[in-house]
Design goal:
Elements lengths: L2 H7 L3 E4 L8 E4 L3 H7 L4 E4 L5 H9 L4 E4 L7 H10 L2 E4 L4 H10 L5
Parallel strand pairs: 2-3, 3-4, 4-5
Antiparallel strand pairs: 1-5
Helix pairs in contact: 3-4
Length: about 110
């Protein structure tokens, strides 16, 4: 599944427009050290962390996208950096729990 397809499924807005990034796994985590230790390539990371450090971790781990749940307002500087680094960012009105369920139903594994 691509980031663009996932964005549509979760009613999201793609604010870092790397819609063609392929997603093969997912994770939900707000602790940055845990995300850094367990983040994988092509991962969709659901987090409330919107700052540059989260983008740096996603870049270091070659993640496909970051998903901000609960309608969390976009940090446009982070979104611009993510787009530059090739990371998609999706803002969704759904909760992290709902997003993870949709991803699981779509066949995206942990």
């Amino acid at each position: 599944m691509t980031a663009g397809e996932l964005s549509r499924r979760i009613g999201g807005t793609l604010i870092a427009a790397n819609a063609d990034n392929e997603i093969s796994r997912g994770m939900v985590c707000d602790m940055l050290s845990h995300a850094m230790a367990h983040g994988k390539a092509d991962c969709a990371w659901i987090t409330v962390q919107t700052h540059m450090t989260a983008v740096a971790i996603a870049t270091q781990c070659s993640m496909a996208c970051i998903i901000w749940p609960d309608g969390i307002a976009a940090d446009m500087l982070s979104a611009q950096r993510a787009e530059h680094e090739g990371i998609a960012i999706i803002c969704s009105p759904l909760s992290a729990y709902e997003i993870a369920g949709i991803m699981h139903e779509a066949g995206i594994q942990a």
